[in-house]
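Today's session is about reading a structure prediction critically. Students often jump straight to the picture, but the first step is always the sequence itself: look for stretches that repeat, for charged clusters, for runs of hydrophobic residues. Only then move on to the predicted structure, which in these notes is written as discrete structure tokens rather than atom positions. Here is the chain we will use throughout the hour.
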Amino acid sequence: MTNGQNDHHLCPSQKLAAKIAAKTLHADPAQAAIALRLDQLIDRLQTAALPRRKWPMVIRQMLDKISGSLFGRILPPAQAPVKGLYIYGGVGRGKTMLMDMFHDSVAARGLGRPNLPAIWRLHFHDFMVLAQDVIHEARSKGADDPIEMAAADLVRRGAVICFDEMEVRDIADAMILARLFSGMMKRGVIVVATSNRHADDLYKDGLHRDRFLPFIDLLKQRCEMCQLDDGTDWRGAVLADLPAWHVPSQTARPQLESAFDKLAGGAAITAETIRVAGRDITIERAAGDVGFASFASLCDVPLGARDYLAIAGRFAGLVVSDVPKFTNANENVARRFMWLIDALYDRGRFLIASGDAEIDDLYQGHQWQFEFARTASRLGEMAKRGRMQDSG
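Below is the predicted structure for this chain, in token form.
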């Protein structure tokens, strides 16, 4: 094993081998195959970076200036663009873990175009929220083409962009995405993405999907399609062994912490902020696509159904502590909890939580008695199945 500092410089195959040697992962031939493809992409990035690094600084600066101009966009590229990877496969197969290994390796090497961060990584839902904010800002500045201006802004954030859980669900996102990505890829951005479905199935059966097809063609031109073949659903196996509802809350914290650590799978743990319509929702801890939050931080604040849909769009599942009993005195938070459970359930997310009562005894109020019966039923199903995740 290497020390933590050197671990970042390991290529994905080496990182995967280290986890297997440490017995934190089982050997998985399909994961090893994808790790090798990511290694090869790093090699291509290094090769592409070398010639330019040798040029005198004055020439590099001149070319950087030209590349950001109108003339730079119509000049032919000095070499064929490096193709990214689009990694797709079933739930719980480790796609996010592998992409994180790639991200850390590229960031440690500082690969990419001069004067640009090497790489940035974000969940696809977060990218769409950011994109809408940048487009709105461009529009407020009177840009003739706000989406093109947004593309120019976004490419300055990294030469390589990593998307986790690429999914397109509505016509507005589809139309923005098609134009925005075209503008970003024209400017040389290299994409590494994970998804549960092949690119050909993105926005499948969506309204006016014919307008989205040119984007799919572009994505396939600029990314190699890599399937993470079927195998063990590692997250499902972990969830199957974890109780989903813990009573009482006062003594359940160690079990929740243990569950979160197992589901995190060694991913870096940070706070996460989700922006919805200008509001920031803070998740206390996030590791990849798993979040840990208190009930109070999610439901004892003025959030609405749209906010909970955003949370369910960002995370494959949540660990939630300290769900209270619901009475006539806190009907408002009961309503928010119902929205949260609906959002998680409808998106096929998992939930592990602690409560002050068993599921059937949680609600003791009157206003939502009929509606909460469905919430309790859904909680019961999620607790029994333990495998309702929709992300890799």
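Discussion point for the tutorial: The chain has 16 helices and eleven strands.
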